[in-house]
Amino acid sequence: MSEESRALIALKMIRGVGDGIVRTLLQHFGSAVEALAATAEQLAEAAGVGRETAQRITSDREAALQRAEREQDFAQKHGARIYTLPDEAYPTRLRACPDAPSVVYYRGADCLNAAHIVSIVGTRRCTEYGLAMTARLVEGLAAADPSTVVISGLAYGIDVNAHRNALRVGLPTIGVLAHGLDKIYPAAHRQIAADMLARGGLLTDYPSGTNPARENFLLRNRLIAALADATVVVESAERGGALSTAAHARNYGRSVFAVPGRATDEHSAGCLHLIARGRAELITSAADLCQLMGWTQTGTLSDATNRSAHPSAPLRPPVASVPLPDNAVTRVLLAEGATQINDLARLSDLSVREVMAVLFDLEMDGLVTTLPGGVYKLVK
User: Fold this and answer.
1) What is the pTM of this model?
2) Could you give all domains of the chain from N- to C-terminal order, each with its CATH number?
């Protein structure tokens, strides 16, 4: 691995240095190597970095470089790959997103740039109907194109069943993790994770040693959406991580689909909400999805990635206008403009968890969008 890649990994490992700051430093200094070699005064001159972060970079850089070396050794020992944003092999669809992580860690087969990639997500507390519809969708995708990759989050419920059905019908399947590659959470899914490595894989933007903290799961949902051409929500209550994934997919200009259920079924309420608000197309089969995506039996990589790189490409209905609610978070966003989530918590006098709950609802209504570095801004 190049010196530049090692420096980029090290930068991302310094506390307080997110992908937004990494991008700023790359633009300001031209390379991660030059950024790490800069003085605190030089670093503070980069827009948005600040003196405190600049001083932390200079004080922690040697330890970060050593940790980056250990991460490279871990990857080599376990057959994993580390992709940095400038790498040619970096996932194409992910690179097209404005908040693409500067570093991702991957273990598995070479299928991140397959012609057709579909994310299938849903509630952990799924019903027999949800399980049956997941199997029906995956079987249909295999019949339409046996090279289609299925992505999900390896969680209980719809996620793990999407992976299981993909393995059953021979489709590659990738699990996006909310922790490092040195562990599997939940532990009950270790065997299926191992089975996935042969044709699919495991991907994360967290280095080894990162524990599955609760906030990581909402953040990883953006990767589930970003890696795919389309996201399908099979079952979801009115609130849930699957709806967060759908919101990210819309923000990235990707297609969003939802499976309908009974009006009285709480586990379909989220899907029905997406459909009713024009935030997802209704599908009941893989044939519906393929038709709406314009996919033929044998698509090409350029066709698929071109759709992902251009937000105007997905087929979806216009979104209805929703009034902006008056609350502490929206008042800060109106007054300050684009604001980092920690600053939102401080300025609104709320906890980060409370702010994330508000932002979730705003994202679902298409009222805010996410920028690199955990920055949120109102959609005009």
Assistant:
1) 0.78
2) 3-77 (1.10.150.20), 107-309 (3.40.50.450), 328-378 (1.10.10.10)
